[in-house]
Amino acid sequence: MVIDTTKLQPERSQDSRNLAVLTWVRLMRVYHKVDRRTAKEMKQWNLSVSRFDVLNHAGVREGRTQQELADALLVTKGNICQLLDGMEADGLLRRRRSGRTNHIYLTDEGRALREASLARHEERIAQDLSALSSDEQQTLLTLLRKLDRSLSNDPA
Question: Which domains does the chain carry?
Answer without folding.
Answer: 42-149 (1.10.10.10)
